[in-house]
Design brief:
The chain has four helices and ten strands; from the N terminus they run ββαββαββββαββα. It is of the alpha+beta class and 208 residues long.
């Protein structure tokens, strides 16, 4: 599928996940996920290792996703996520005008603490472009939090009704753009950032 590889070494394999693919199967046991696709491609190339996801992006979200080459590296990376040692940066287009240029959303999700920081990068006619940093890792945290404060992500259909907003998009305008962390093996600081996917660039070109 020509999935872009952003970073690779002896332990980690970081890709730019396209929107529309699950990271791993849900309880419905889908056969085709990003993980199955890239492992099949590696097998076809004669590689003898398997990739193990260290975290997840939901089906509708694009962006940086970390895989480990082996269970040992996966365990270390998952521990780093759990201990909040990895900085995650997302770009989101959110409906309407946020009341503050930056803020923190602290609303529990399913009874568990959840914290999301945000900073407005640019204000457009009827939506804001926001850099988002989730400090906790609840499922769909960014999408839920912005819906809770009345500014859902543009293109949201799971937690908001499209008909309630004048601004429409055929896809979720949420992208995992950046990762910053200490490599678990080399101990070097990694700072990875990627561009917005073409679909989001096209959306910005059409909506001032």
């Amino acid at each position: 599928m020509n999935i872009p590889i952003v970073y690779e070494d002896n332990w980690l394999f970081i890709v730019d996940k396209p929107s529309g693919l699950l990271t791993v199967p849900t309880p419905k046991n889908e056969a085709r996920t990003l993980t199955s696709i890239i492992n099949e491609e590696l097998q076809q190339k004669g590689e003898h290792y398997r990739l193990h996801p260290c975290h997840r992006l939901d089906r509708d979200t694009s962006g940086l996703l970390i895989y480990a080459k082996g269970k040992g590296a996966q365990k270390k990376m998952m521990s780093a996520f759990k201990e909040r040692m990895i900085t995650k940066k997302y770009i989101a287009f959110v409906q309407g005008k946020l009341p503050k240029d930056k803020g923190e959303i602290k609303i529990p999700i399913e009874g568990r603490s959840a914290v999301t920081q945000y900073k407005v990068i640019q204000r457009r006619c009827n939506f804001d472009i926001v850099e988002v940093s989730p400090l906790t890792g609840r499922t769909n945290q960014i999408r839920i939090h912005f819906k809770m404060i009345g500014h859902p992500v543009v293109g949201e259909t799971k937690y908001a009704f499209r008909r309630d907003y004048d601004l429409k998009a055929k896809y979720l305008c949420l992208h995992a753009q950046g990762l910053e962390f200490i490599h678990p093996e080399t101990k070097k600081f990694l700072r990875l950032y990627i561009n917005l996917p073409q679909r989001l660039q096209d959306f910005l070109g059409k909506h001032n």
